[in-house]
Please model this.
Amino acid sequence: ARIVLGEFMLSGRKLDPMTYTAFMAPTCFAVLAVANAVAWNPAVVPAFMTHWRLLAANAGVAFLLNVLVATVIKELSAVGFVLTGLTKDIFIVVLSCVIFGEQVTHAQSLAFCMTLA
Model:
C-alpha cells in the first residue's frame, strides 16, 4: 500500500523524490516514536551516546536510500520497483551460491521462477 501511495503521490501529484521523502518522513517518525515508547529501554541513551557516529552515518544512508526508492518508484512505477527488488533478491541468492557454496532447494528455485513469471 505504501508503494502504491508513493506512485500516486510521485506521478499523480507530480512531486519530486526529495519532496516525497520529506512528506513521508513525519508519518514514519510518528509510527516509530509510538513503537519506541512501547518498547523503551533506559539502556538506549548510553548506547546512543557511545555509538552516535555510527547512528548518524546510518541515518544518512537511510535518507539516501529513501530518496533513491522514491526516484525508482517515480521512474519505473510501483510494479517496476517491486520487480527490481525481487530481481535483487534472486541475484543475492545466486551470488551466495557462487561465493559461499550455499545450496538452493528445488522449492526455492520454483518460488523464484514463479515470482518472476
Q: What stands out?
A: The chain has a mean pLDDT of 88. The radius of gyration is 19 Å.
